[in-house]
Amino acid sequence: MKRNLLFIFLLLTIMSGAAQNKLQISHGPYLQEVTGDGATFVFLTSEKSFSAIELKKEGTDTSSLYYHTQYGFRDAYNTFHSIRIEKLEPGCTYQYRICSKEMRSFEPYKVTFGDSIASQWYTFKTIDPKAKGGAIFITSDTHNNTKMLETLLELCDYKTCDAFFYAGDVMNYMADGETPFHAFIDTSVKLFASSTPFEVVRGNHETRGKLARTYPHFFPKKDGKIYGSYLLGDIMVVMIDCGEDKPDDFWVYSGLNDFDSYRTEQAKWLKELVKTKEFKKAKYRIVISHFPMTKGIYDYKELSHGMDDLSDKCLPILNKAKIDLMVSGHTHEYAFHEKNAGGNNFPILVGSNQSAARLDIADGKIKIKAVDKNGKILLERMLQ
Prior knowledge:
The protein is of the alpha+beta class. It has helices at 2-20, 146-155, 179-193, 215-218, 259-273, 277-281, 305-319; strands at 25-32, 38-57, 64-66, 69-70, 73-74, 78-86, 93-107, 110-118, 122-125, 134-139, 163-166, 198-200, 228-232, 235-240, 284-289, 325-328, 335-337, 348-350, 355-362, 365-372, 377-383. Helix 5 packs parallel to helix 7. The strands form four sheets. Strands 1, 2, 3, 6, 7, 8 and 9 form a seven-stranded antiparallel sheet that branches. It has seven helices and 21 strands. The chain has two domains: 25-125, Immunoglobulin-like, CATH 2.60.40; 134-383, Purple Acid Phosphatase, chain A, domain 2.
């Protein structure tokens, strides 16, 4: 009898383990770098697999499979998947789903496949270059607080937003590969990110932790950079990557940082960006920077080094570029700095660590609504 019970127990244990190991999508999908002619699809599988995106135009039955291909190989035997699809049509609605096949072994001359899965169909739309205005959600400094993030998204009526930006410090630090998902990606996927992309502007806290150097891996860009610009119809959003707040030689960094040079690199890029046709043609120009760029307003001694260095290098360029608004965070204190309050030739909205902003942009005007986690309206302002 005891032997029979032991046999049944072992059998149930094996069956339970098999069920737990069954191939599934463990995180995502979430969209990145959606443009007028392309989109990147990011997701994780629970087991090493061979994965593709099946894509079709909405309303049609004809679909195609797309893979991430590099150096002659289709990506295989991995759990992290990032697939870029290009040559799409601007302003067009597409449907997609994930198709994955488990790879139980991967020998030089023999591959053993296991379970195959297909996700539900998701819908997204490529950017319409002729679009006028839009609604943008921006928050920062949520520091792993997913409950507050969800509350802020709800308070800003996220379902009617066209674009989402995280302005840094949405994580405390990069502890492991699960950190970005637990901090904000999973919440974003639950609410919108499988159909509407988000963009992340790195804060100083995302530069910390033993896996901080893997940050770009989670938010892939064609040019490999984590600063850049985003064109949403006639809205140009410039995203600045601030780096650390303290000097590069500050003892806690152990000689591993070189952000002063990195900010110089970005200033050179920014100088060229504002000369481009796309920048000049945009009707609205918004800058997102984790550090607010001002002179004489913030004085945190050694903690203000990064802010001062960034302002010294980028503010003179932006002041001549007809910027409509800068949105920042970092200070954990809500503020709205009027034009010329501290060397800035444009208004600056600084979010707290418990607030978010919604920008409704139309008819040559930017309507700002900033709220805190309790629903208190911090600012309602029309810029024109």
